[in-house]
Structure to design on (1040 residues):
């Protein structure tokens, strides 16, 4: 007997070492996941946070009456050639610049969207016109990237798009206090653009909004109704079995397949237009339906039978019982499940690519029938663009998307806390 | 005695035990030759106390039966003896429990070694989803008790024989242990426990899931095992306690009311609560 | 189109109308019965939408695929070794359709899936084990939500991260070790996909591990096994069917994942097992073939549906098997 004890004792060291190692592997696995998450978030933020400010340059713009045909009226302002005005002013600021290439480089320092901003500015406040006025204008994305320190001036000139002469002009402006970083309003109010400094996420946000709205308006009532039928009324037979298995499998179908469904049925068979949030929402609603049905059924199943018995006992019909007594109690759980589905739909990209919501669209959609894109698709589009400034914007758009998701999940947590019911 | 009178007697006696912090177990708590000694054991589950100041010995080569109404803490106490309670987060054990004189809750006591020395058989048979052979060999392999396959074969065969299962399973050692009948499964679990030659075997209602024939077989087995091992068994069957045990301990609401030779407990119990329980009048 | 909008409004206003009607008719038995019949019909038709969706998927993918196979023989598609839908391989070919041999895509999908599973399975399983068997409540309360965040991040974010950060990192590391690595290596996409699937594997395994009865653990501890011995020798073998089921679900997830590979894997249909080279996948090609303005009838577009059919069938088979295995496993311990 004591020999067996000695035998056990002899193995202990090795076994405890193995135990420690095993435990360590477990901790390490979790750590890998968490570190990756941290790495992802930190890179995204460090790549993207600078996109929330934008470089502006102050130019002395010649806004004398002569530029407006002698008379300053809203009509003459609207008709004026602001592109020319800005170019003249830039030439005046650096009179020594000559030659086509150099001049073009000089003009390129200011965003080509600045002319429209300037017109807006004047239409709003015509008193600015009348003489040479210093005006803050949106700088080109290369200037912006340079000012944010992402271009190394020591790099050989051939490797930079911003050449030495341009850097010289920017330096001069900086010395004169004519360069400033301001809150990047265009990023939040503009639609997409080929010019990074003018590109914004507002179009994508509105597109996402319409898509998700359509998705939820369809998926929530259908999902809840389907769950009510399956959980409360459906007889237990082969057909309901098939529906059940079918729903579980549908939940695991790759999302891109739903895109193919939308392309073949909604676009080709029904002839709905491409690229519209309406179709996107319909496709995503089919995709989120299983999630909503499954969680709604769980919520219904959690309502104790005593509630049903009590209602039936006082003479309510089965339908009245479910709609008036069971449904309100199950609603918080159903809402939670649906919001989880919503979050899933908000981040979904692949099916939207297939139904054409990946087009380049500048205008901000104003209805589900306007061509539009969605926030994750916008991220995909920008990620493909070669300009450096788009890397920053892609990361910033990701930050905005994640922010929305955080808000939604925070809302779910709140909802659960507030409405959690224990019978 | 009419019903009312018995009720009032019971509540009076209960008061004496439950509300009395200085209650002392009636009878002889010591064994002639103790394998384990427990002194002043308290057990708490979180804020709730489940065992109050229990002191008792487990005698060598004898069977001690633990009886008492449901929820009185028999399992809890039994699980203290091989520190199975350590697997429950909220469970706290205090007091002094010794195995061959060594404090089992001491830091120097290795829990793996302790459980190899104090084996346990559970209420519901819980064979692993492995073959009969691997079930029995499980502990032996873990602890590295054999060097060769032949030795291992021998240990498995010996344990199955001791557990009275060999004749029934010798031709299907490679079949899953979960495929056996309930009684066979329980004997398999006993074989699994004795394969690592423990010093003490704890059994928590080992027959509660079994039919009378399977129960009889296991009772026989326990009687045989007594020659080599010290055994503590929890049971709800008074007859079983009377048949297999030499000493009996009666628990009530976390307190050890009375302990003594089984014959004495069942023929002339000292404490009124014990008497009430074994005669089935209350409890 | 207008009919569709009407239908649309019907689904939203219908339930509200029916509930109101139920209220108004509560004193009239006959009317109420009718309203209730309407409501039941509505409920049933909603439940059937799930079926219609599946039927719709099968029909649309199948029909377009059949049309594709009329132009390109199915054997060429399934067994052909060359994939170049954009360029004509013979001058007498119509339009610009080229070779549609999908084997390189299957191989690429397989390669990336394997890399992802090599990352996700051990890490996911070990995380689940650690969380359910070792972690203190404090650690669990902290680590579990973090892993769930990992699961909630949109795949387009992973894709961007893979392309912008992970791929260059891998290439730099490999360069310094003297390897030659493509900037769109299968490795980068696979690794990031593995991390994306990690929480999925972990939460499924967690479920499965927790459904192993406590009695089984007690039996092992009672014999003097350490925790890790109990896990490795008793819990994992007991949970094996369930764990295999979750792995199959994870594989199906990896095969169907689109954005990570679209952004981080390449377009070049290389037939290779080298994780440092660039490969393309079924989902990447579906997206590539369908994005942009193409007429719907060209073999290129139809090829996307044929790929979709393959994807659907494979993931469906995996899911059906996995769900059945997991259910059987859970019933065993009910
Ligand atoms: N894991 C636990 N957590 C909290 N309380 C527990 C736990 N296990 C047991 N208890 C409590 O401890 C007391 C004793 O329980 P125990 O299981 O030891 O009783 P028992 O005598 O074995 O009963 P039975 O004959 O029904 O098996 C009971 O009040 C029970 O509620
Ligand atoms: Mg018990």
């Amino acid at each position: 007997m004591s020999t067996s004890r000695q035998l056990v004792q002899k193995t202990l060291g090795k076994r405890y070492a193995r135990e420690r190692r095993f435990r360590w592997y477990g901790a390490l696995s979790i750590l890998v996941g968490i570190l990756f998450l941290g790495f992802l978030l930190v890179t995204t933020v460090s790549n993207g946070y600078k996109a929330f400010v934008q470089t502006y340059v102050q130019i002395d713009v010649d806004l004398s009456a002569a530029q407006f045909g002698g008379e300053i009226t809203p009509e003459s302002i609207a008709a004026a050639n602001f592109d020319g005005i800005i170019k003249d002013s830039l030439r005046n600021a650096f009179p020594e610049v000559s030659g086509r290439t150099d001049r073009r480089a000089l003009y390129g320092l200011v965003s080509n969207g600045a002319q429209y901003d300037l017109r807006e500015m004047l239409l709003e406040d015509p008193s600015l016109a009348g003489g040479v006025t210093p005006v803050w204008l949106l700088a080109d994305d290369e200037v912006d990237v340079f000012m944010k320190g992402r271009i190394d001036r020591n790099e050989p000139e051939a490797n930079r798009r911003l050449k030495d002469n341009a850097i010289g002009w920017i330096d001069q402006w900086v010395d004169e206090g004519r360069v400033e970083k301001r809150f990047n309003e265009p990023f939040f109010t503009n639609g997409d653009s080929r010019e990074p400094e003018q590109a914004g996420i507002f179009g994508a946000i509105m597109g996402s909004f319409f898509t998700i709205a359509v998705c939820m308006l369809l998926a929530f009532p259908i999902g809840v109704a389907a769950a009510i039928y399956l959980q409360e009324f459906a007889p237990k037979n082969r057909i309901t079995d098939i529906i059940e298995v079918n729903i579980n499998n549908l939940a695991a179908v790759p999302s891109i397949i739903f895109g193919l469904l939308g392309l073949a049925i909604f676009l080709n068979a029904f002839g709905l237009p491409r690229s519209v949030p309406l179709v996107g929402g319909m496709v995503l609603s089919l995709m989120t339906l299983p999630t909503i049905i499954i969680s709604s059924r769980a919520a219904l199943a959690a309502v104790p039978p005593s509630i049903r018995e009590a209602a039936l006992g006082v003479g309510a019909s089965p339908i009245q019982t479910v709609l008036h007594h069971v449904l309100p109690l199950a609603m918080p759980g159903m809402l939670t499940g649906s919001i989880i589905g919503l979050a899933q739909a908000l981040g979904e990209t692949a099916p939207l690519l297939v139904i054409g919501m990946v087009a380049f669209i500048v205008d901000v959609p104003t209805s589900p029938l306007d061509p539009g894109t969605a926030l994750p698709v916008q991220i995909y589009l920008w990620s493909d663009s070669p300009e450096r400034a788009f890397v920053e914007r892609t990361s910033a758009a990701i930050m905005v998307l994640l922010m929305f998701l955080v808000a939604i999940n925070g809302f779910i947590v709140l909802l659960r806390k507030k409405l959690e019911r224990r019978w | 005695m009419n019903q009312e009178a018995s009720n009032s007697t019971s509540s009076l006696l209960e008061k004496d035990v439950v509300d009395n912090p200085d209650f002392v177990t009636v009878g002889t708590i010591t064994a002639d030759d103790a394998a384990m000694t427990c002194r002043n054991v308290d057990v708490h589950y979180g804020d709730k106390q489940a065992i109050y100041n229990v002191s008792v010995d487990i005698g060598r080569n004898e069977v001690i039966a633990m009886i008492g109404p449901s929820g009185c803490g028999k399992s809890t106490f039994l699980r203290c003896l091989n520190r199975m309670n350590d697997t429950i987060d909220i469970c706290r054990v205090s007091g002094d429990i010794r195995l061959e004189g060594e404090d089992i809750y001491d830091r120097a006591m290795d829990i793996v070694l302790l459980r190899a020395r104090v084996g346990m058989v559970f209420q519901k048979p819980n064979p692993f989803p492995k073959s009969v052979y691997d079930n029995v060999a499980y502990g032996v392999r873990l602890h590295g008790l054999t060097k060769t396959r032949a030795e291992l074969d021998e240990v498995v065969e010996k344990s199955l024989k001791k557990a009275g299962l060999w004749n029934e399973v010798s031709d299907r050692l490679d079949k899953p242990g979960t495929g056996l009948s309930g009684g066979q499964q329980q004997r398999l679990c006993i074989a699994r426990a004795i394969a690592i030659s423990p010093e003490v075997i704890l059994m928590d209602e080992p027959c509660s899931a079994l039919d009378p024939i399977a129960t009889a077989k296991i009772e026989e087995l326990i009687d045989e095992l007594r020659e080599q091992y010290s055994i503590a068994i929890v049971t709800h069957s008074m007859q079983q306690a009377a048949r297999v045990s030499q000493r009996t301990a009666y628990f009530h609401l976390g307190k050890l009311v009375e302990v003594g030779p089984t014959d004495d407990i069942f023929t002339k119990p000292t404490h009124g609560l014990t008497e009430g329980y074994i005669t089935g009048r209350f409890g | 189109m207008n009919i569709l909008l009407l239908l649309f409004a019907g689904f939203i206003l219908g339930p509200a109308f029916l509930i109101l009607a139920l209220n108004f008719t509560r004193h009239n038995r006959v009317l109420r019965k009718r309203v209730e019949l309407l409501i039941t019909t509505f409920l049933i038709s909603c439940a059937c939408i799930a079926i219609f969706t599946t039927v719709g998927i099968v029909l649309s993918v199948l029909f377009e695929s059949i049309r594709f196979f009329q132009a390109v023989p199915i054997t060429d598609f399934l067994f052909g070794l060359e994939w170049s839908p954009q360029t004509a391989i013979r001058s007498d070919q119509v339009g610009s359709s080229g070779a549609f041999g999908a084997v390189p895509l299957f191989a690429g999908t397989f390669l990336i899936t394997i890399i992802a599973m090599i990352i996700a399975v051990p890490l996911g399983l070990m995380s689940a084990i650690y969380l359910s068997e070792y972690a203190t409540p404090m650690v669990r309360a902290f680590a579990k939500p973090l892993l769930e965040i990992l699961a909630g991040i949109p795949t387009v974010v992973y894709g961007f991260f893979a392309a912008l950060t992970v791929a260059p990192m891998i290439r730099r590391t490999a360069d310094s070790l003297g390897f030659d690595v493509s900037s769109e290596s299968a490795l980068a996409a696979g690794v990031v996909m593995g991390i994306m699937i990690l929480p999925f594997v972990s939460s499924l395994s967690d479920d499965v591990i927790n459904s192993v009865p406590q009695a089984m653990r007690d039996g092992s501890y009672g014999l003097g096994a350490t925790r890790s011995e109990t896990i490795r020798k008793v819990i994992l073998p007991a949970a094996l069917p369930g764990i295999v089921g979750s792995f199959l679900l994870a594989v199906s997830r990896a095969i169907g994942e689109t954005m990570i590979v679209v952004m981080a894997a390449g377009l070049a249909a290389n037939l290779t097992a080298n994780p440092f080279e660039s490969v393309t996948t079924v989902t990447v090609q579906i997206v590539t073939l369908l994005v942009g303005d193409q007429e719907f009838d060209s073999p290129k577009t139809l090829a996307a549906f044929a790929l979709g059919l393959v994807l659907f069938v494979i993931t469906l088979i995996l899911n059906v098997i996995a769900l059945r295995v997991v259910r059987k496993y859970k019933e065993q311990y009910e």
